[in-house]
Amino acid sequence: MDLKSLFTEITLQPSNFELNTSVDCVIFTIQDETLKALLTRFANKIGWMLPGGFIAKYENSDSAAKRILQERTGIDNIYMQQFKIFSDPDRFSFEELFNISDIKKNKHKLPKLPERVFSIGYFALVNYEQTKVTGGMYKEESNWLDIKNLPQLAFDHNEIISEAAKALRKEIHFKPIGYNLLPEKFTMPELQKLYEIILDRKLDRSSFQRKMLNWDIYERQKERKEGVAHKRPFLYKFDLTKYKQASERGVNFGI
Amino acid sequence: MDLKSLFTEITLQPSNFELNTSVDCVIFTIQDETLKALLTRFANKIGWMLPGGFIAKYENSDSAAKRILQERTGIDNIYMQQFKIFSDPDRFSFEELFNISDIKKNKHKLPKLPERVFSIGYFALVNYEQTKVTGGMYKEESNWLDIKNLPQLAFDHNEIISEAAKALRKEIHFKPIGYNLLPEKFTMPELQKLYEIILDRKLDRSSFQRKMLNWDIYERQKERKEGVAHKRPFLYKFDLTKYKQASERGVNFGI
What we know:
By secondary structure, the first copy, chain A, is α+β, with helices and mostly antiparallel strands. In chain A, 32% of the residues lie in helices and 25% in strands.
C-alpha cells in the first residue's frame, strides 16, 4: 500500500474515520547522546512528518495512537501520553498531503474533506536498542532525527515536536526515568547525563544527586564502578517497587 | 436566547461551527475553604454541566475557550490552560442535550449531526471575590459546586472535572499560586492552607515552608501577623518580578 492507497482508504470510506481528528505521535529516544524523534517520509514532496493518522469511528484517541504508531512504524506496546491538541484552522491541508491537484487531474472522485483537521499530540520516550522500527504499512521510510537540527517538517510538525519536548521536560520532574534507558547498574553521573540530554543543559552535580537520592527510588550497590580514572563512583540500581510507585504518584509531591 | 435558540444557532448554521469539536471549561475557585468548580444548568432535564460550546470555524481552541467562557458565564480575561482531550465515541449525545425526540415531534428539520463530539478540556483557578459571573447568553443558571460533592453531571463532565483537578494538582508543583488568591500580606500557614485545600490533604508544616522558601519568590516582611493567639507568624509578600519569572519557567526546575 502506498500513499495513493492511503488516500483511497480514508477518503472513499470516510464513514470509517473521523477525518477531522487525527493523532500525531512524537517518539523520543536517546542515541549518540542526542535527543531524537522518529519521523516518517512518504515518497512525495511533503517531506518528513510525524507518524500519525485519523481516528477510526469506533476508537478513542488513546487506542488510535497505539494503532497508528504500530501501523506506521511497527512499534508496538509502548505507553504514550497525550500532551496537547493542535487546532489552528490552517494547520493541515489534504491538498498538500495527497497532492490533490494531481488526483483531480486523474479524475478521481473526491469526497467532501474537512477544511480543518485537529490533531492530538502523543509522546513517549523509548530505548533506542529495544525499539523495533520496521517501517510502515504505506511503504514510508522512517528515521530518528536530532530534534535540535530538524529540517522543515510537513504541516505544523516542527511545533508539535517542540511542544512535545516541553511536555517531556516537564514530565521528568515528576516521573522518574531511566529504567530501560540505563544499564541495570548505573552511576549518578550516567543518570545525570540522561537528564542533561533531555533538558538540554548542564546540571549542578551535587544538587542533582541530592534531589535524586531524596526521591528514594535508587538502591546504592556495595560495589563501585571500575575502570574510571579518578574516583570510582558508586553504582545504583532502581528499586522497582518504589520506582513504579513513584511513576504513578509522581516524585515531586514532596511539598 | 434559550436552549432552543442555541440548537437553532448551531444546527441550522452548521457551517459556522466545528460540530465535532467542543471545549469545556473547568473554572476552579476556593470558597469557604473548599475547592469548587463553576457549573451551569439549562432549564431542561440534563442537569448541571460545564460551561462549554463548539469551536467556530475561524478560531483555534484557545480562542474558542475564551469566547465560550465569556458567553456562557460572563467571565472575561482569565488565562485558561488546555489539559486533555476527551474522545470516547459515546461521551456526548446531541439527542440528550437538545432532547431531539421532542424536536423531531415538532417537525424541526434536523441537519446531519456528528455521532461523536471530541471535547478539549481547559482549566483555570480564579479568585472567588474577583470573578464576576453574570450568567450566560442562553439564560442558563450558574453556580459554584464543591468538587468533592458533585451530583451526576451531564455527559462525562464528572470525569472532566476529576481530570482537571489532577492537572491543577500537578500544576501547582510547578507554577506558584497564591497571588490574587491571598491578601497582599500573608503568613506561611495561610499559604499552606491554600495548598492543602487544592491538594485535599494535610501537609507537613516544616517541609512545606522549606520548599516554599527555596522557591525564592516570597519577601519576608518586617512585621508579624497580629491577633494570633500564641506566636505571631511572619508576614510575606510575593516578589512580583520573581513570581512572574517562576510562573513562566516553573519553580521546580531545580534539578
